[in-house]
Amino acid sequence: MAALNIEKGTSRHSAYDLRDPNAETIETHTLAVLVDNEAGVLARVIGLFSGRGYNIDSLTVAEVDHEGHTSRITIVTTGTAAVIEQIKAQLGRIVPVHEVHDLTTEGPSVERELALFKVAGKGEKRVEAMRLADIFRANVVDSTLESFVFEITGTPGKIDAFADLMRPLGLREMARTGVAALSRGA
């Protein structure tokens, strides 16, 4: 049974607090990985994550230097500080990897995501969807008499908030690109 501090009227331990006081905090980190643009590199990077049970929340890949044949992989992942350090170290050991940057710890960065939302509705719901799209600066990229397709760019939090508001108005489908990120400054 938990001890009760009678003088202050507070409990030092609660039988209902199931959190482990020694557990490390789970953090979300955005990693930018510069790699050779060749067959199998992405599979090796993903294999590192899946083989060790690490989760990938977001993954984007694109060639960034055509002449140098390099691509940039942006990965959003979660884990304890020790797990994040282990991921970075293991990524750095993969032969086609040139650089690994933790944008979360290296200083200010800019993160953006593009999403498309198909929202079906008539009457007041249609009007409300258009009003919210205007507030969020979403663009209408397709329209029929019964639905809209909105395009929105912003932080993952902004995309999540827009989705939450569109669900009761008739959200039917959503497609997200994943996070693209760069460090700020020189």
Note down, in words, how this protein is organized.
The protein is an alpha+beta fold and 186 residues long. The protein folds into 2 domains: 76 residues, 2-Layer Sandwich (Alpha-Beta Plaits), CATH 3.30.70; 75 residues, ACT-like. Chain A, domain 2 (Alpha-Beta Plaits), CATH 3.30.70.1150. 25% of the residues lie in helices and 40% in strands. Strands 7, 8, 9, 10 and 11 form a 5-stranded antiparallel beta sheet that branches. Strands 4-5-3-6 form a 4-stranded antiparallel beta sheet. Strands 1-2 form a two-stranded antiparallel ribbon. A hairpin with a 4-residue loop joins β4 and β5. It starts with a strand and ends with a strand.
CATH class identity of the largest domain: Alpha Beta
Number of domains: 2
Mean pLDDT across every amino acid position: 89
Give the overall form.
elongated
Can you write the helix and strand succession as a string? Answer: EEEHEEHEEHEEHEE
CATH H-level homologous superfamily name of the largest domain:
ACT domain
- Count of helical segments? 4
> Strand portion, in percent?
35-45%
Low-confidence runs of at least 5 consecutive residues? 1-15
Which CATH-level-2 architecture of the largest domain?
Answer: 2-Layer Sandwich
User: Over all CA atoms, what is the radius of gyration?
Assistant: 22 Å
Please give the share of residues in helix. Answer: 25-40%
- Helix/strand structural class: alpha+beta
Distance between the ends: 57 Å
Sketch the major β-sheet.
Answer: 5 strands, antiparallel
How many β-strands, per DSSP? 11
Keywords: Amino-acid biosynthesis, Branched-chain amino acid biosynthesis, Transferase
EC number: 2.2.1.6
InterPro entries: Acetalactate_synth_ssu, Acetolactate_synth/TF_NikR_C, Acetolactate_synth_ssu_C, ACT-like_dom_sf, ACT_dom, AHAS_ACT, AHAS_small-like_ACT
Subunit structure: Dimer of large and small chains.
